[in-house]
Amino acid sequence: RSSWLLLAPLLTPPVPLITAPPCSLCPEGAHRFQWIRNLVPEFGISSSHVKVLSSPAEFYELLKVQIKTAKQRVVMASLYLGTGLLEQELVDCLEETLEKSLQAKGSSNLRVSILLDYTRGSRGRKNSRTMLIPLLQRFPEQVRVSLFHTPNLRGLLRLLIPERFNETIGLQHIKVYLFDDNVILSGANLSDLYFTNRQDRYVLLQDSPEIADFFTELVDAIGDLSLQLQRDDTVQMMEGMVHPYQGDKMAYCEMANRRVMEVINSARTRQELLHAKTFHSSQQGSSLLSQQGSQASGGLKPEPDTWIYPLIQMKPFGIQIDEMVTETLLTEAERDARIYLTTGYFNLTQAYMDLILGTRAEYRILLASPEVNGFFGAKGVAGAIPAAYVYIEHQFYSEVCYLHQQERVQLQEYSRAGWTFHAKGLWLYLAGSDLPCLTLIGSPNFGYRSVHRDLEAQVAIVTENKALQQQLHQEQEQLYLCSGVVSSSTFEQPNRYVKLWVKLVTPLIKNFF
């Protein structure tokens, strides 16, 4: 079963050179990040529309409430939907809401679109597909289930690699949960662990129609490129679409690039026009105010104090926006700035490691201790993955020590009895500030897979509002509170022993997890 590992060096694509965008940083404040809008749409909102959640239970309850109150659309993108009782309750909520919608109007306006990964969603006899087929059978006109299949898993490779291992080649990894005009961005999947004792991050953007429209269009675009689940558990492509593993790979990837970039560029154009119109209106509004007093301000929206930038990474399709923005943020962070970076799977790309070790900001990197790694206790080869992460962590720590950077770059391990750790993202504190003005939150892990293999999306949230900055700061503190600082003695503990075969194999397979 492990013979496929020998293919790893052959399957690793060459790493292209990345050119970071020109960075026109303003001297101070949140507006220094407006260069991001040269790449993606910029959504200006009020900070009162942003709510940071802290626990899996809170996330699960919010999902149920949002499903039950949805009137127009439910759009959910995840790696997979689990098969337990909690997941069944979510499906039951969807069924109930769809039924009520039909009874209320006779013909319902409510549309449900679910995007999952094909390989992960098809794993086992009872799987994501079997969980959702009853919805498709009962509401064929309202429900769509799309299963993304990476174009890199094809031909002989697809035939040879067994179930579970085939997920290493590439996945649909985006996690977006959208209900009418409310959007939840997270790294959490739709599975019972993520609803109970698997720590992640979650942010709710309320009453944000433009952001909801963008992510609806993005999920629709990927859905159009995906296999459509049918009522009899078969799958088929939409008419006129290139097949991801039977059709021409280059044609499929070019079509995918066009489709996704259309969504990004059209939203960017819309937001630029809206920004220009709002700016013009606000000038007129201030003129009216000066003439007519405060009554004229009633119809004007409050000035945004928070900006949302969606960052998309789909390297198989030649889209690497998230990578460019992340590298630029790491490059431009000034001396005495602090970056808190967290990942459930510590396997940074070489470019990210070089930037962390070679730039001026202080880094506090939070990662999973072996016991809270999602693969801890797994059967077979997967059971050795936590040891491989320990080996990667030790190598990075040794490099930090060799460069005498221990004060500037600090590793911390999350540890919590009975829990696993899956949180990812970063918080940026400008020099001299006790609160973060920017966070990245979404699906990427900052590793090779996130950058090169999988479909990923996160948002950069930039805010000038102190109350929201405080929310983000508390989120960061709460996560780091459950951690201990890594030192050389950490790797002398018995549970950090890494077998020789793991050390030998890790360089070959590290690009797959």
TrEMBL record:
One Gene Ontology cellular component term attached to this UniProt record is: mitochondrion
Which GO-annotated molecular functions does the record name?
Answer: ATP binding; CDP-diacylglycerol-glycerol-3-phosphate 3-phosphatidyltransferase activity
Keywords annotated in UniProt: ATP-binding, Lipid biosynthesis, Lipid metabolism, Mitochondrion, Nucleotide-binding, Phospholipid biosynthesis, Phospholipid metabolism, Repeat, Signal, Transferase
**PANTHER family tied to this protein:** CDP-DIACYLGLYCEROL--GLYCEROL-3-PHOSPHATE 3-PHOSPHATIDYLTRANSFERASE, MITOCHONDRIAL, CDP-DIACYLGLYCEROL--SERINE O-PHOSPHATIDYLTRANSFERASE
Q: SUPFAM superfamilies given for it?
A: Phospholipase D/nuclease (SSF56024)
The similarity annotation says: Belongs to the CDP-alcohol phosphatidyltransferase class-II family.
The secretion signal range is 1-20
Q: Would you tell me the protein name for this molecule?
A: CDP-diacylglycerol--glycerol-3-phosphate 3-phosphatidyltransferase
Q: Which organism is it from?
A: Eudyptula minor (Little blue penguin)
Looking up InterPro entries in the UniProt record yields: PGS1 (IPR016270), PLipase_D/transphosphatidylase (IPR001736)
* Taxonomic placement: Eukaryota, Metazoa, Chordata, Craniata, Vertebrata
Q: Where in the cell is it found?
A: Mitochondrion
> Does Lipid biosynthesis appear among the keywords?
yes
- The PLD phosphodiesterase domain is annotated at 168-194
Question: Which E.C. number(s) belong to this protein?
Answer: 2.7.8.5
| Catalyzed reactions per annotation | a CDP-1,2-diacyl-sn-glycerol + sn-glycerol 3-phosphate = a 1,2-diacyl-sn-glycero-3-phospho-(1'-sn-glycero-3'-phosphate) + CMP + H(+)
Q: In which pathway does it act?
A: Phospholipid metabolism; phosphatidylglycerol biosynthesis; phosphatidylglycerol from CDP-diacylglycerol: step 1/2
Function according to Swiss-Prot or TrEMBL: Functions in the biosynthesis of the anionic phospholipids phosphatidylglycerol and cardiolipin.
- Provide one Gene Ontology biological process annotation: cardiolipin biosynthetic process
